[in-house]
Amino acid sequence: MKPLISVALLLVAAAGIPSCLGQLVWVNDCSATFKLGLQENVPVGTRLCTLAATYNNNSARVTYEAVSDNFNVNTTTGVLSMARIIDRETIDPASRDTVLLTVRARYNPASLSIEAAITITILDVNDNQPQFEGQPYSASVSEAAPNGTVFYSGIVATDSDAGTNAELTLSCINCAKFHLFQTRLAANRYQGSLMLVEPVDYEQDTYYIVTVLAKDSSATNPLNRTVNVIVTIGDAQDTPPVFRDRYISFTITENNTVVSALGYVEARDGDGGDNLGRPVVLDIVNDPIGAFLFRATLDPLLSSVYYRGELVLKPGAVLDREAWYGNFYSFNISATEIYSKSNTTKTDAVRQNAVEIIVIDINDNIPAFVDGPIFNVTTPENLANLSVIGGLDILVRDADGTSRYNTMNVSVQSSTYANVFAITPSTVVGQGTCNLLVMDSTKLDYEVPAYREHEVVLLLQEAGTTEKFSSSATIYIRLTDINDNAPTFGGNSSFFQFSVLEIRPVGWLVGHVRATDRDSGLLGEVTHSLSGSNADKLSINATTGQLNLAKPLNYDIEKEFSVTVVATDGGGLSSAAVVYINVQDYNDKAPYFSQDRYTATINEQSTILIPPLVLKTNDTDTTVPIKFSIISGNTPDNGFRIVNQNSSLLNGELIITRSGGFNFTDTPSGTFGRFILHVLAQDEGDPPLNATTIVEISLRDINNNPPIFNPKNYSAVIKETTAEGTIIATLTATDADIDAETNKRITYQLQSGSVEKFTINSLTGELSVARTNNFDINREGSLFYVQVVARDNGAPTQSDVASVYVTVLDANNKNPFFFQPLYIFQIVEDTPIGSLVGFVNASDQDSNARLEFTVNPTSITAMNPFSIPVTSRAPFDYLAAFQMNSSGFITTQLVMNRDAVAQVQMVAVVRDLNAELPPIQTATSTVVIQITQRSSRSPVFSAPWSVSSPQILVPMPEGLPVGTTIITLVASDPSTNEKVTNFRVIPGSDSESAFTLDSRTGTLTLNKVLDYENRINKRLSVIVEARTSANTTALCTVYVIIEDINDNPPVFLSSSYAFLVSEDTRYPQEFGLVVATDADSGDYGTLRYSLRGTGSELFFLDPVFGTIRPAPGVTLDREAKSQFDFLVRATDNPTASTAATQRYTDVPLTVTLTDVNDNAPTFTNPTFEVSIFENIPAGSVIITLTASDPDSGVNGIVGFAIRSGNELGYFGLNPTTGALRVSTSLLGKPSRSYVLSVTATDGGTPPQSTEHRLTVTVRSVSETRGNPVVTYPIEGRSYATVEEAPIGTPILQVTARDPDSSGENMTFLLGGTDASKFAINASTGWISSRVRLDREAQATYQLVAFVRDGSGLETLAPVLFAISLTDINDNPPVFAGCNLQPVPVVVPENVYNREINTFTACDPDISPNNGLTYRITCGNEAGYFAVGRDTGVLSVVKPIDREARSQYLLCLMANSTLPVVPPGSASPANQSQLMVLVNVQDEDDNGPTAESAVQIAYLASDVIYNTQVTTLAVTDPDLPSNWNHVYSVQRSVFTSADRSKVNSPADGAFRVDSSAGVLRSGFLNYASYIGGTFDVDVLVSDSRSRTARVNVRVNILGEENRLRYVVSMTPVQALGVAQQLIDNVTAMVRSSGLTLTFQRVSLHATTASGAEQNTADVCFAVAGSESQILTLRQAKATLDKGVSSSLDSLYSEFKVQSIGYCNSYSLFKTYNYLGIEGYWWLFTAMSAIIIPFALGLVGFMMVLYNKYETMCTALQYQ
Length: 1758
What we know:
It is a single chain. The protein has 15 domains: 7-123, Cadherins (Immunoglobulin-like, Sandwich), CATH 2.60.40; 131-234, Cadherins (Immunoglobulin-like, Sandwich); 242-360, Immunoglobulin-like, CATH 2.60.40.60; 368-480, Immunoglobulin-like, CATH 2.60.40.60; 488-584, Immunoglobulin-like (Sandwich), CATH 2.60.40; 588-700, Immunoglobulin-like; 702-810, Immunoglobulin-like; 812-934, Immunoglobulin-like, CATH 2.60.40; and more. Strands 64, 67, 68, 69, 72 and 73 form a six-stranded mixed beta sheet that branches. Strands 1, 3, 6, 9 and 10 form a five-stranded mixed beta sheet that branches. It has a five-stranded mixed beta sheet with strand order 28-35-34-30-32. The two termini are 61 Å apart. 4% of the residues lie in helices and 44% in strands. It is mainly beta.
């Protein structure tokens, strides 16, 4: 609209004034100013324009005025301004947005005036928001409405502005399912309509809140307004019925004809709202046998919309569970909606649901043998034990359907022979096949007629029922014969021997070898035959087994041969016997050696030839032994000797009689370590004949000496900068062996320790540095250890180890460093010359560093007070203003001039004057000196800060967590004492970004974890500036001194140690060294060593130096124990008063003892007396000597020799086997006793020997008077046989001689105490067992052997001897006292390499069969445990975290070292296993942890002091006994509801129980804090200074925040269920983001009836999704009755009447059953009587009265 301006000018001349006086005219009437109009809302006083008029071109004495309420004019100056704000929208519309302004000018002396009328158009400003008419808006739409339906057009928006400011756009903010379109009704009036664009579902959402936005079109300041439209969704009939229960199940007993009604099924219309009420009818669908029907009703349940149908079993219908449908009988039911009760026509709204009838089984079936009750079976004999009788499948069944009724026991009720058969399985559930097992196969032997038929009766009976229904069956078993017996030869022998002279003719009877067979019929008929290469030399009778000579014999061609007699039965089984034929000859030829020359080798100091040297001769016709002798080359002491070999009279074995063997010095000169022997072999013929040979023996060096280091320990001192290849030590080992190429040749090698630091020359042993600059003592320490091994090249290799300890000295090779990268100092401008400004400090890791400080003169710069760089040295010479001395102290050299220079900056340089490598070592730091004005308002920090010393030192232990408060700096303005609340860190002063500063509080906290050990600089600094409100500042340098704590365990240089120690080592000889380091400093890094484990008392470990040696007075014995397994522990902080402040590390250490020859052999023979007859054949063994030596290797090898008593040479002793033989015929020799001195000598150096006297008595044959004599066994001897050998096993053969006959017809007999347990073959003398021989039952049996010859003469002196049983491993180990319960043990967590317990099992067997090993077979999958293989010591080998797992169930198995032979009295298998329950003992290794970062709590405003608010939700993975939590309130701040106060300090608002963690109120009341929240920071720490922080947000509740449920029960009853009610409601509404918090229970009261004893108030608060407190109005939509059927059901259960405000002044509280608020009038009356004595009660009464009034007012609104 274009503005219209009309200006009328009237010139009026005063009457009577002459025209010559001139004219009053307008120079500016302001009409041009308003030509384009005037904007509305121009502020009052705004200058618009200046009126100007002249009289005769002169403006003096002209005055101005304006006729308008909207404008003012200065009468003198003519300035026109706004008198009031014009609002365009309030102007009369008839004026068309215009106002009229009339202005006048007067010239008073002439009484002249002029005026101008100006019409001003008021321009619109967008100062009005759009408005919605006809609020509130609500609409509805049916869920059945199609998309595109316009369902609401009642939204009208207007805007009173004009033009584009009134052009509106309507839009929808949250219209997911709707569309908003608009229609323009007028220039500033618009209509909005809602259209449905997506389907809506009443069952999902019953209403929507649509927000409509109206926004004008202003380009500069658009305004808008929103309005909510509640769209209600109308229900349509579109949902099928719903069942109350998704899973419908009923139970009925099978065959039930009594109970007909099973239960109810309920369904309702699936729609909601107005369509909820359609009735529902129920029907049965696909009932398999039509057993059920519904009794239904169209009347819904009381107070419900569900329709019920009663499920009924039809009359006559019976459910047999076993028929076909099993446990469950299933069908469907349908729920169909009908139009109404009067119109029962079914609609298409139908839903089906499954019904499951659980049919309960009863015991109505008898178990039965399906194929019985008679079974016939034929089976072959001799089935093995536990074999199944074939062809016999016994099927049993019980048709009942549950294990309660169909579990059956099957057993053998009777049988022809007891315990022959068993049935398996013995228990069957439902149906199963049983088998008949053979338990005693001896009763299935067809060869015993009585065993050929068996009858077995089986019983099948219910197991768990009261009826015990049963049935039986009979099995008839017939055996068939099989060919199960092979022929056996007479005497059960498979060996026969006959002697035949070579002159016997063909057909000569050699002997009989006959076999028989136990099988019947043709199977038992036996035929004999010969086989083998020599079978043609004999013939045999096929029936009788008689052997005859078939060919002539020739002794010179063949001295003996053998044939095999094969006996075959009718079934094809055969047995064989070997027949040896000895061909006898006469002596007529000389012997001869098989070789012309023999050679052998012997190790020095040994008595064993390699290989054993046997001199073999042949003499084709001699029957007497060959005698051997050494005719030349023997040693002076006859160190060599030849004896007849055991197996042949013609062979001689060369033995060494010198017990210590030979050394190289014993060999003849010039032989180069050889012996040349000339040997003669001579027979005993007449005349005697002989032969000779040469024997060459070479002596060989053996590796019997290890290399020896001397000394064992070496030390060296080097510098850090030692060059690569520098030799620091030469290790030397020597070897006493001879062979320089093998046994004596030594090589060196680095074995363990700091092997990367050094190298060693393998030939010379020179140890050198591996690389230059390879050491850093500040990082690695100054002590390095390496272990060197020296090995010879012998076989087997022997070695020795030595330890080298290298001390590295510090070299000056590191640069110095400043403690701060930036130093800032402040001085006032009037500081005197020579004053100390400050100092810089630096350090150097090198021990001999000498530091000098200087200033880099080219680095000095300056700035004036305006931060402009100063380049001129006038008027103030900033380059010469300060001086730094060599110690780093800075002083003033001039009087400061702050107007010229306000800041000087320079670079400080520190140099190490003792630098070695590199030669110049420097560091730099920036120094800033600020020159300040003298001001009394510069802030002052709290002590120990001062102006002259503006720094604070703060010691701090290492390892503190991020966020730890270091210090809170406090500064104030000294002139006003105002606390400074503006702090900052000077940029660059915190070089490591190690700290965070709270700019408001001045609290300095850690920004990262600081480790003392990994830092060169142990001191950090930061510069903090404090600034007052007057903008004055001060600086404070905070030095944080990092202190070491004991946070590093000791670390050994080796993860394990092993030392070889000769058992003859004695104190104080050292044999080992352990070294550990600790990264901590001081006492924390000082270590002490200790030794732990069985046998540790035998050794001494130096606690300081770590050297190991035998303990004083201890003699080590390898034979007693050869290896010791220890744990060596290094413990730090030795001066600590308790172990809690110490740390330790354990590593395994093994000490293995090496053998020295310190034991002499011991004879083990039971007797050293033997008797023989003179006619004993030459070469016969008389006795075998045995001896043992506990030493190892060559030290334990035993050789035997006859030292004296054998001068006549009648006897020979095998030096290796100890067999003593008769060397020559004793016939005709005197009958006497020969006392032989025999020795047993070991192979050690020097050798040790034992001597014993052996008596051999030679008896004359004539002493027997012709009676037979037992020659074996020997009188009084014991003979061993293995236990548990099968019955009938041959044990030993009794032999005898009959002086006056060939002995072929002798009969052997047996007597004695235990003769009944053994049998003896009368013909052969073989003794065998008759019973089971168990060593654990009886170890020794006493027997007497005697013999009778063919003429009836018996032995005059029967031989008493014993049979002792040799143990076999037939018993498994058994843990003593074990049972099925696990054995509990305890192990602390976080320890390892520690013994827990020792478990011991026993084995009834004897050594070596009772050797045990232990192992863990289950429960150790993570490998935390180990058990000593031989000791049974259970140890923990890895640290265990109890918080990860607190118990471990281990299976500990004890196993025999040898296999267990089955036939023994074996214990049950589980007796070798022990269950061990390891309980992990908690230790305090975890700190407290807050369960949530913020913990929400609620507190009523009227609580009393010390009321419990909440218990802090703090946990600790450790057990509560190790928590030791200490709680303390660190900070309390308050934020009001209107946020007028935010984090306002509120010290003392809350307190916390230091040990229980219960937060309690600290104020007397919180009435002034209602609606606000307190944030309470609580610090939780434990005994090890580990901390956690909990923030508790306490919401203060007023009356409007506390809601109540009114419940129909007494307060006591309500108190018992209140928490459950609140919890259940919270669970139901949690999806809405609401949480209810129970407050208290009160007696309900109303104004009408007062207190109601049977009604109570349950008070609670409601919090939203962000823990904000909600009022009743906010919570009502979710919690009120009628909102949710599930809530209504819960309210009904808990008798909830209503929900309303909770009155804080109830007559009944949980802590005060009878309040006194209602009795104010009584106290008022009492006070009137006793007022002189109770003036103090007046105030109390008034308070009570006020509370009463408040309570009454609250009750009016309940």
